[in-house]
Amino acid sequence: MEYRPLGGTGVEISRIVLGCGNFGGIGSAPEFFGRGEDEFAAFRIMDAAWELGVTAFDTADAYGGGRSETAIGRWLATRDGSVRERVVLATKVFNPMGAGEDGGLSRERVRRQLESSLIRLGVERIPLYLTHEPDPETPIEETLETLDELVADGRIGAIGASNVSGGELEQALAASEARGLVRYDWVQNSYSLLDRDAEDDVLPVCRERGLGFTAFSPLAGGWLTGKYRAHEAPQAGSRMELRPGPYEHLRTESVFHGLEALSGAASERGVSPAGLALAWLLAQPDVTAVIVGPRRPDHLEPAREALELELSAAEREELAAVFDP
Q1: How far apart are CA 163 and CA 131, in angstroms?
Q2: Which of 2, 131, 188, 258 could pair with 322 as two cysteines, CB 3.0-4.6 Å apart?
Q3: From 3, 63, 129, 228, active-site residue
Q4: What is the DSSP letter of 247?
C-alpha cells in the first residue's frame, strides 16, 4: 500500500480508501436503509481492507441511517490500540438521517450531527470531516464558522467538501480567507473514466490552491467492471437494478464500445477492467486517493491489482480516449 498526505490537512492516508456507504444501507437513501451489508459482512470487509493496508475509512452520518458509522465503531471497539491509533476516519454531514427528518449545514445541525457521529463511531475526535454537499439554505460563512469552532474545540481535525463545483469551492475558500476561518483542505467528488467532470473546474482549483482530492464512484456504479452489457438486463441487486437513474445516460453504443476496449487493454496487462480503471485514477497526478466500496472481501482484488500497476502519461491518455465521444 502507498500512503500520501491529504492536501494541507497534515493527515496521511492510504491511496485506497474504504468506502463504507453500503454498510447497513445503500448510501443515504432512506428507502434502502437496512438493505446493505449487515454487521457481520461489514466486519469481514473491514478486516480484508485493513489486511490490504487500507488505513482510511470513509462514511457519513446518514449512510444506512447511522448504521454505517455504528458498524465502524463496533469494529474499532474489537481492535487493539494500535489499530485505533492508525485508522483515519472520515465522515460527512448534510443528508437527513431518515425520511422526513431535517438536513443541511446550519450551525445547530452540524453541531448536533457531529455529536451523534462521535457516539456512533465511539471516538472523541474525527480526523477528517466533510460537508456532504453544499447547502443552499445556509450561508457558507455560517457553516465555516461552525466548523472552525469545532476544529478549535478539538472535535474534528480537518475539513473537506464533497459534491462541490469549482465555483462553490472558490466561494468557500474566499470566505475562509476573508474571515480567517479554517478552509476546505480537500475535495471528494465523483471521478472515473466515465465521469471526468472534475477535470473541468474542481481539479484545477485543487491544483492551484494545494488541496487534496479523493475520488468516489471510481467504477461509475459498476459500469467499469464490465458487468453491464448491451441488450442485457442488469444483475439483481446491482446499481442499475436498484438505482439506475444516475447511470442511465451510460446506455449508449459508444460507452459499450469503450468498455470493450477497456476490457482488451486490461487483458493485455493481465488485470481486470476494474483494476485498470482504478490504476488510471491512481496515476492521475491530482488524485490523492481513490475510494472503493466493496460488497464482499474479494471485491478488493481490483484495488490490489491497481496498486501493482503503473501507467505512463501516454497510457493514461490512451485509456481516456476510448471513452471520448
Answers
A1: 9
A2: 258
A3: 63
A4: G
Strand bridging mode 289-292 / 126-131: unpaired
Q: Is 216 exposed, middle or buried (0-12, 13-18, 19+ CB in 10 A)?
A: buried
Write the CA distances from 185 to 11, 112, 170, 267, integer angstroms: 11, 23, 12, 38
Supply the pLDDT for residue 230. 66
Cα–Cα distance for residue pair 219/223, rounded to 1 Å? 6
Assessment of whether the complete model's pTM goes beyond 0.90? yes
Inter-CA distances, 141 with 93, 107, 170, Å: 16, 10, 13
Along the chain (325 residues), what's the average pLDDT of each consecutive run of 10 residues? 96 98 93 92 98 98 97 96 94 95 97 98 98 98 98 98 98 98 98 96 97 97 84 66 72 88 96 98 98 96 97 96 86
Q: Angle, to 10 degrees, between the axis of helix 140-152 and the axis of helix 107-121?
A: 40
Residue 3 falls in the annotated catalytic set: no
